[in-house]
Write a structure and sequence with these properties.
This protein has five helices and seven strands. It is an alpha+beta fold. The protein has a seven-stranded mixed sheet with strand order 1-2-3-4-5-7-6, with helices on both faces. A hairpin with a 2-residue loop joins strand 2 and strand 3. Bound molecules: coenzyme A. The site of coenzyme A has 18 residues, from strand 4, helix 4 and helix 5.
Length: 149
């Protein structure tokens, strides 16, 4: 179902951190995730989707993957999924990315993310075993332009 309410996509500010932590279920039990969110916001790598002044999703774009653009995180509030918000955030990152190629990854078990990436025409780029036992990390990439800016 497409979302008809306007979505604002923007860099996160530190005042968004509590909203993100409130809907990211991993943050509820893992202090390291809370720290990650704060760190990514502080380094201007965290983007949020906002609807009616509420933060409903966040994504992290940094350059840790062999100096390429790397979507390290995409997380949509459970009540706002299947409304095109995750796709909209990724499209926003396609424009924000400073490198010619953009990479991301997801577990083999995460069919939702795999389908989302397929709809945005990301290509597969191998896999990494032994991170999560029995659940390989599938790597994806998208060529954005011929040369880095
Ligand atoms: C994966 C995730 C980011 C998708 O976000 P979303 O906003 O629901 O995705 P979209 O609405 O943009 O979906 C785009 C397409 O992806 C596919 N898709 C997304 N969620 C799906 C699901 N649960 N089942 C099947 N296909 C799915 C569909 O093809 C969908 O298009 P459609 O709704 O027109 O059929 C969201 O489910 C989420 O936050 N999950 C928990 C965190 C996570 O797994 N993040 C990714 C790894 S870091």
């Amino acid at each position: 179902m497409a979302c008809n309410t306007p979505i604002v996509l923007r860099l996160a500010t530190i005042t968004d951190a509590n909203s993100i932590v409130a809907f990211d279920h991993v943050a509820a039990s893992e202090p390291a995730r809370v720290q990650f969110i704060h760190d990514q916001i502080k380094s201007s790598a965290c983007y949020v989707a906002v609807i009616d002044a509420n933060v409903v999703a966040y994504a992290v774009l940094n350059y840790k993957f062999y100096d390429n653009g790397w979507i390290e995180m995409l997380y949509v509030h459970p009540q706002f999924r299947r409304q095109g918000i995750g796709s909209a955030l990724i499209r926003h990152l396609l424009n924000a990315c400073r490198t010619a190629q953009l990479f991301t990854s997801t577990n083999q078990s995460n069919l939702s993310m795999q389908r989302l990436l397929a709809t945005l025409e990301f290509d597969r780029s191998g896999f990494i075993e032994n991170l999560d036992e029995g659940n390989p990390e599938l790597v994806y990439f998208k060529r954005l332009r011929d040369n880095a800016i």
